[in-house]
Amino acid sequence: MAVPEPTLDALNIAAKAASNRQAENISAVDVAERLGITDAFFFASAETERQVKSIVDEIEDELREQLELKPTRREGQTEARWILLDYGHFVIHVQHEEERENYALERLWADAPQIDLSQAD
């Protein structure tokens, strides 16, 4: 099952917004067939908690502005080591680089198809 076009559009907007705030290691995976409750996971990381917050704010602002999307759930804002934005069809994970190394979510989903985010450039 391929990720629907509206979700791909949103992921590309998120990738561009994250890139604008100097996010590192931006990627996304198609988890629809393996998970069933969402289509995709988006990952980005940053060196500081302040930068994690800035990236999340930019992603949220751009998705709201361009697609009128708002997350149904937002977690981790207080500590800003790992902030999750749940949009239903996709989930955004922005992590401090130490959390990203420690939890290594990409390894858990290594067999999931990668999503091309080249339209974000």
From TrEMBL:
Q: Which SUPFAM superfamilies match?
A: Nucleotidyltransferase
Query: What Gene3D superfamilies does the entry give?
Result: Beta Polymerase, domain 2
Keyword annotations from UniProtKB, A to Z: Cytoplasm, Repressor, Translation regulation
**Family the UniProt entry places it in:** Belongs to the Iojap/RsfS family.
Compartment(s) where it occurs, according to its Swiss-Prot or TrEMBL record: Cytoplasm
Q: Which domain of life is it from?
A: Bacteria
Q: Name one Pfam family in it.
A: RsfS
Which InterPro entries does its entry note?
Iojap/RsfS/C7orf30, NT_sf
- Name of the protein in question: Ribosomal silencing factor RsfS
* Subunit organization: Interacts with ribosomal protein uL14 (rplN).
Hey, what's the signal peptide range on this chain?
A: none
Tell me the function of this protein.
Answer: Functions as a ribosomal silencing factor. Interacts with ribosomal protein uL14 (rplN), blocking formation of intersubunit bridge B8. Prevents association of the 30S and 50S ribosomal subunits and the formation of functional ribosomes, thus repressing translation.
